[in-house]
Amino acid sequence: MAAIKKTIYAALLANLFIAITKFIAGGISNSAAMIAEGVHSVVDTINQLLLLMGINLSKRNPDKYHPLGYGKELYFWSFVVSILIFGLGGGLSVYQGITHILHPEALGDPKWSFIVLAISLVFEGTSLVIAAIEFNKLRDGQSWWQAIVNSKDPSTFLVLFEDSAAVAGLSIAALFLYLSHHLNKPYLDGVASLLIGVILVIVSLILARESRSLLMGEGIKKQTKQRICKIVEGDKAVLKLMHLLSTYQSPEEVLLMLIIQFKPNLSTADIDESIDRIRGEIKKEFGRIRFVIIQPDAFKGKINPDVQTYI
């Protein structure tokens, strides 16, 4: 978590500085693309603050109103971040782009815009490299996209997506700023703003999809389920694992519920001992599984191999 915070702080400082300089340069050069980039940096700055708040709120201890803790605060604020990128970042950039295409304004001096874009690329590029290095440590042999889809911590890939979109947006702004002055076609500046907005909308939809899945109760992966099944059915008192349900409460906390059919003629003490063994072995092997609820299922006298269900 310390490494993740380092990535967020790096992006926060970079975006705060860049936002100010972009607005100044945009005002001087009368560039819609630069103003759109300024809005983009402001939204990114707010997003990093919200992510930090979500991380801190998710660490609160359980209480009588939230006995399982506040881990899903991170998922909630990550979803809010994706909505902000869509509405404030993408929406305003698209609106401003269309406005400047329909009603192009006279171009100002682009010198300061190019200077700011160059400085911004250095800062955003540095932040992107830091985010990529930290996320690469978490991939564990997976492809980049697989690691993003399988990640249970949206803060690890949110900054990566934001910085990637920022670098792409800066490149588009620089290219179209040059073309608009070189060809003397002011409307191209609006086209740049529109393209930046479209990129932000696409990024926001991807982030919203991943954050929503976690917020709605995404469970553990198939391989983990299979291993838990082996642990449970390997216990001497167990006849069959009937159902397995799981959900991530936070990136580091999983709630697991097992419905187990125990062998007949076992005493209550035998079943209790088996439950303690199973719970202990699962927690020992899977550190993220903090809550294990086990419900014994009555023996029906007949075993149907098709009954076992994973949910």
TrEMBL record:
InterPro entries in alphabetical order: Cation_efflux, Cation_efflux_CTD_sf, Cation_efflux_TM, Cation_efflux_TMD_sf, SLC30A9
Residue ranges of the TM segments: 7-25, 31-53, 74-92, 112-135, 156-179, 191-208
Gene3D superfamilies named in the record: Cation efflux protein transmembrane domain, Cation efflux protein, cytoplasmic domain
Top-level taxon of origin: Bacteria
Membrane topology: Multi-pass membrane protein
SUPFAM superfamilies: Cation efflux protein cytoplasmic domain-like, Cation efflux protein transmembrane domain-like
This protein's UniProt keywords: Membrane, Transmembrane, Transmembrane helix, Transport
Annotated localization: Membrane
Location of the Cation efflux protein transmembrane domain: 9-216
Name listed for the protein in its UniProt record: Cation diffusion facilitator family transporter
Organism: Mucilaginibacter ximonensis
